[in-house]
Specification:
Elements: H1 7-11, E1 15-22, H2 25-34, E2 41-48, E3 66-74, H3 78-81, H4 84-99, E4 119-122, E5 126-129, E6 132-143, E7 149-157, H5 182-200, H6 206-215, E8 223-228, E9 231-240, E10 246-250, E11 255-258, E12 262-265, H7 266-271
Parallel strand pairs: 1-2
Antiparallel strand pairs: 2-3, 3-7, 4-5, 5-6, 6-7, 8-9, 8-12, 9-10, 10-11
Helix pairs in contact: 4-5, 4-6
């Protein structure tokens, strides 16, 4: 099966560039923007040879997994564009719900799960299944000469394989017993993106996105440890604020708002964040 866009995505003017193997779909999308691409372009591949995650970490995408990047062009408000990562998380969770048969994925996150979603969203950019990382999302941007910014919304999903040597649990759809391929998942993702982007509505619907995200949040109300620039803060995952920043209630009762950090739940949070 070849990669293709959902009819809703085609009707809304999205375009598709599909590859078997690339270096990085994010890098390729940003190159297109610098060369004058108008955006609303999906760049997808079955394999990435030099993918990356947050903070420059390597993100392997072996053949059969999904590497997808949506290129969008925005004005000068990069802070608002950063919330597109939450739109992407919801779109991917919706796509996974659509293509993975019910009963294939168990629910649970080391005692911190809300117990209502097969696929949970871990702040700020991961999708979990059975408490393990199934997918990651990475936003990268580049300034364009006309004052606008190109934003590459990268989505990597472990469809057939996952890295075995990570410091946290990871999994793949295949390891969880869910059949399917990258092409089928991307078709559903392109459809789900359109629906969630309409809800986001260029930022005017961020409140609705926030509420939906919290309904899918991993670890909400549970023990959490957040590593911030070498130090670790512990407490309870309280909420995300109106700008989608992480809010933790420290053990003394103080509320702390965090814009960037590595989050650990459950037993890992209790023992230490690594």
């Amino acid at each position: 099966m070849a990669f293709r866009l959902a009819p809703t995505a085609v009707a809304e003017g999205f375009r598709l560039e599909a590859h078997d193997t690339v270096g990085s779909t994010n890098a390729l999308a940003l190159d297109h923007a610098r060369d004058g691409d108008a955006g609303n372009l999906w760049v997808v591949a079955r394999m990435q040879e030099s993918g990356r995650g947050r903070r420059g970490r390597a993100w392997a995408t072996p053949h059969g997994n999904l590497a997808a990047t949506l290129l969008v062009l925005v004005g000068s408000e990069l802070r608002l564009a950063a919330t597109l990562g939450f739109v992407a998380g919801l779109a991917l969770a919706d796509a996974l719900e659509a293509v993975v048969p019910k009963g294939r994925i168990a629910i649970g996150l080391d005692g911190a799960s809300q117990g209502t979603n097969r696929f949970e969203l871990k702040w700020p950019n991961d999708v979990l299944a059975s408490g393990a990382k199934l997918a990651g999302i990475l936003l990268e941007s580049a300034a364009l000469g006309d004052g606008r910014f190109a934003v590459a919304i990268g989505i990597g999903v472990n469809v057939v394989a996952y890295p075995p040597d990570l410091p946290y649990p990871a999994t793949s759809l295949q390891a969880l017993g869910a059949a399917g391929d990258a092409e089928t998942l991307f078709l559903a993702l392109s459809d789900a993106w359109s629906a969630n982007a309409r809800l986001w509505n260029e930022g005017r619907g961020l409140g609705a996105i926030r509420r939906r995200w919290l309904d899918h949040a991993a670890g909400l109300g549970g023990e959490v440890a957040v590593r911030i620039d070498g130090s670790v803060v512990r407490g309870t995952f309280e909420t995300i604020d109106e700008d989608c920043r992480f809010v933790i209630r420290e053990h003394g009762g103080n509320l702390l708002t965090i814009a960037a950090g590595d989050v650990h739940f459950g037993a890992v949070a209790s023992a230490g964040a690594g």
